[in-house]
Description:
The complex is a heterodimer.
Chain A (H helix, E strand, L loop, with lengths): L3 E4 L2 E4 L5 E7 L6 E7 L5 E8 L5 E2 L8 E7 L2 E6 L8 E8 L7 E3 L3 E5 L1
Parallel strand pairs in A: 2-11
Antiparallel strand pairs in A: 1-3, 3-8, 4-5, 4-9, 5-6, 7-8, 9-10, 9-11
Chain B lengths: L3 E4 L2 E5 L4 E7 L6 E7 L6 E7 L4 E4 L2 E6 L4 E6 L8 E8 L4 E3 L3 E6 L1
Parallel strand pairs in B: 2-11
Antiparallel strand pairs in B: 1-3, 3-8, 4-5, 4-9, 6-7, 7-8, 9-10, 9-11
Amino acid sequence: GAVVSQHPSRVICKSGTSVKIECRSLDFQATTMFWYRQFPKKSLMLMATSNEGSKATYEQGVEKDKFLINHASLTLSTLTVTSAHPEDSSFYICSAPRGASSYEQYFGPGTRLTVT
Amino acid sequence: GENVEQHPSTLSVQEGDSAVIKCTYSDSASNYFPWYKQELGKRPQLIIDIRSNVGEKKDQRIAVTLNKTAKHFSLHITETQPEDSAVYFCAARGGTALIFGKGTTLSVSS
Lengths: 116, 110
């Protein structure tokens, strides 16, 4: 199957700082990637759709100025949590379909963000 | 947009029993319905999926059924084993992204 990686797997940062999370498709090109957020014992909530070479599409209620998404290449999307606060602590997971017509999504291993 | 409801939120069964988890979706344009198993702190793992042109799909002890008219789909696990214990999520794809149900915590006791 296709491989998606995320870096870092865990990060602890202080309140007010910014954190960048990378999502890479290792063996396929992804024109579209998706970012999800998952609180403990909760479901995956779609945050935004990352589109290579264009602006991301954010879901209702997600602050685009706080969660900056950049999809600068066909294998890399980044999510930057700006001015992080403790309530931003969560598990962030990216996913990508292998090709525009592909149904199956390939998930990254996730990034555990803890803001102190 | 798409909305996915999942029931029950918790399910406890004895080893060897069957388990059924049900989901409903709102967007009649949704055409892909995967089921995921997720262990704590790990990525979701696809266990089975079904497309809208199929009514049922089976893979060993796992099966999924889809009723497009009623807009619901179900996961069936037969002969449950303790290692089936995990959180299960259904999802539906309307546009390009997957929208997830709230999850079902399945506990299989031996």
